[in-house]
Each structure stands twice: as structure tokens, then as C-alpha cells.
Amino acid sequence: MQSDGHYLQGQENMVDKIRVSDLKNVSVLFEGDIYDLARLLLKIDDAKDKGTNTRSRYTIKGLATNFAMLSRMDFAKVEKILLQYDLPFGATVEHDKDVK
């Protein structure tokens, strides 16, 4: 795992996977904010990885880190809110079609 909570394909099997749609009802500041960020990061990763053998994915912790940075909120506050949703912080966020 990289320090930003980002997992590469070879490491993703060490943690559970979560469907991006499972984040639709998660809210920190407004309805769907975590879901929106997760979808954006998936699109960025897919575009960045296109034409390579790399598959990059963020964990829930990585989403929390990025959300805290973008919203200028304290990470601990974002983490506390996300933990109330019982989200597995080590799980990688995947497209729904990629989780069985």
C-alpha cells in the first residue's frame, strides 16, 4: 500500500473489495459526496492505467484522506463520520461489475 491509501493490483487481494454503489448513501457534508468522489477517482485511475498492466484503486481510507484534503476538513473528523457507516477502511473501492 502506498502512503496515500492507494492500492495497486498486486496488493488489492489482501483486503476486501467494496462496490462503489455501496457508497451512495454515505454523507460527510452532503448527500452522495463520498460516492461522487469515489466515482471520480475510479475514472481517473482507469484513464491513468489505460494501456498499462497496472490497476490502481483507492481504499476507503484513501477516499477519506482525499475527501479531507479537498474539503479542508480534519482527517480525524472525516474518519469518525465514515466509521459510523461501518465501512471497512482497508477495502478497495471497485466498479460494481468488478465485485462478485
Task: Give the strand order of the largest sheet, numbering strands 1, 2, ... along the chain.
Answer: 1-3
Q: How many domain modules?
A: 1
Structural class by helix and strand composition: alpha+beta
What's the story with the biggest beta sheet?
A: 2 strands, antiparallel
The fraction of residues in strands falls at: 5-15%
Characterize the quaternary organization of these chains.
Answer: single chain
Helical residue percent band: 40-55%
Fold and architecture overview:
With 100 residues, this protein is α+β, with helices and mostly antiparallel strands. It has one domain. Helices cover 42% and strands 12% of the residues. It is built from 4 helices and 4 strands, in the order E-H-E-H-E-H-H-E. A two-stranded antiparallel sheet has the order 1-3. Helix 3 crosses helix 4. The longest helix is centred in the middle third of the chain and has 17 residues. The chain is globular, with a radius of gyration of 13 Å. The two termini are 23 Å apart. 22% of the residues are buried. The N terminus is likely disordered.
